[in-house]
Amino acid sequence: MNKRGMVIVTFCLCGFIYGQEARSLADIARESKAKAAPVKPCALSMKKPAPATVTDLIEEPDACTYMNGVSKLLAERKFSELEQVAAVARSSKARFVGGGWKLYTFYLGVGPIPDEGSSQANWDSRFENLKSWLSRQPTSVTPYVALADFYLSDGWKARGNETADKVTENGWEVFDERAKQAKAILIQARGLKIKCPEWYRVMMTVAVAQGWTREEEAALFNEAIAFEPEYYYYYQRVGWYLMPKWYGEEGEFKQFAQAMADRIGGRDGDILYWLIAAGTVAGSGSGTDGTDLSWIRIRRGYHALVEKYGETLLRQNEMCYMAVKFGDALLAADLFGRIGENWTPTWHKREYFDNARNWATTHAAPLQQLKDVYSESAANLETPEGAAYSEVIAHEFLFGYGASLKECALVESPQGGRIQIALKVGQSGDVEQLLVSPQTTIGNCLSPKVQKAVFTRPPKPDYWVSFYLTPQR
User: d(Cα 406, Cα 402) in Å, to the nearest integer?
Assistant: First the structure.
């Protein structure tokens, strides 16, 4: 297969079959890597001193302090201590506030130095430390995975951040060679007694770099989730490449997210749905809004995640970013108020952060008097019966008044195209009040048309329900 040419592939996941003629994954990876913003995991954290002992490090509750402590152990070539920390992170499946795995953060700590100002000498020193670790601990899976990941990062470093057509021949050669070396190291580790979830994530990166077929990628993904179904980084990686901008067909990413979340089910399924959305819509730099996903389920998933794991600044920024993409000005304004000036690389540029905040403030201001209404409808959405009822009403509304909505949109269509409909439904299903956000002439146009509507009876009288629609002009 010519990895820079065209391939015909089929990708199978949990009963869904996806087929298309597409560019190779290698081309997609190279182009997307060039456009993605650099990630600085602890750019906004105060760097506290590293934990004094291995026990302290294992029990460290702050992700950035933990990562810095792991990095310090590698710099000091304390390989036995690194093995202890990794073993506990792997066996305990511990997570930090916000839901991030300690194991994933461990590998960030022994990975490429995240600071942009880091010298080549520091980079080379870390590379040599990883090689020494592997030579000292040849029966441990951890240094194999860490070194393979570093080889991949070194390949990207040689390739540079240019678009595919501007990469030098030498850049491609080093990139390809590093991918081969990473794969060889991972294959050596495959037969070891202890297995590691991160092994699969790194091998999935190899698959992208080498342009594996979708059948091969699917087999690897299915093996990964069979080994550790809760390691959400797998789902984020696959979900991103199934977006229409890159590798998938229209609706394919939505099918994948829904299938994976439904496979787990319940609140944990909703959390996974949010994590897939956050990793793709807010975390990939893919340039796509992903608004074919269910905003109701994203909101429900975020609420469940915060309830289970707590909220962090990064999670707030991710959710705020998505609220802007989905046109939820009230939620975005609330999150911007809590974020303050502490924006993260989720926004890629300060300019976009400022523009989004101005949009949210402008569009949320007229709706503040209606905040209790939207809070009530949002609370209803958090219940299973409320979420189900919202989906029913959205379909009934679109079926009965889709033509009217289209007609009203000809008068004025909101920025971004998406509007939020809020209905106060009486005991018999009659409409007592209709609100439209953002406030445009669409609301005035729709109100008399919907005034005599009768919908499915709500769970209780005087019930506020809200949903999002995209008027087609």
Answer: 6
What is the per-residue pLDDT across 114-130, written as a single tens digit (0 to 9) for each?
554 457 778 888 889 99
Q: Which long-range contacts (CB under 8 A, 24 or more apart) does 47-50 make?
A: none
Exposed e or buried b per residue across 397-410, where buried means at least 16 C-beta atoms within 10 angstroms of its C-beta: beeebeebbebbbe
- As a whole number of angstroms, the distance between CA 76 and CA 200 comes to 28
Q: Give, for 431, the enclosing helix (H) or strand (E).
A: strand 431-437
Q: Are residues 54 and 200 in the same domain?
A: yes
What's the token pair of residue 145? 């995975």
Distance CA 111, CA 132 (A): 14
Intra-chain end-to-end CA distance of the chain, in Å = 44
Q: Is the pLDDT confidence value at 41 over 50? A: no
φ/ψ of residue 98, rounded to 5? 100, -15
Cα separation, 55 vs 71, whole angstroms? 16
Task: Report yes or no: 99 and 274 within 8 Å, Cβ to Cβ.
Answer: no
Asked whether residue 238 is domain-assigned, the answer is yes
The reported pTM is: 0.71
Domain boundary among 313, 330, 347: 330
Q: What is the rounded distance in angstroms from the CA atom of residue 314 to the CA atom of residue 72?
A: 24
Of residues 15 and 177, more confidently modeled = 177
Q: Residue type at 253? A: F
Q: How many CB atoms lie within 10 A of CB 103?
A: 24
Return the bridge partners of 437, or none: 420
| Boundary-marking domain end, from 330, 361, 377 | 330
What's CA 152's distance to the chain center, in Å?
Answer: 21
Alpha carbons 144 and 202: distance in angstroms, whole number: 10
Q: Tokens for 348?
A: 């890629």
Cα–Cα distance for residue pair 118/115, rounded to 1 Å: 6
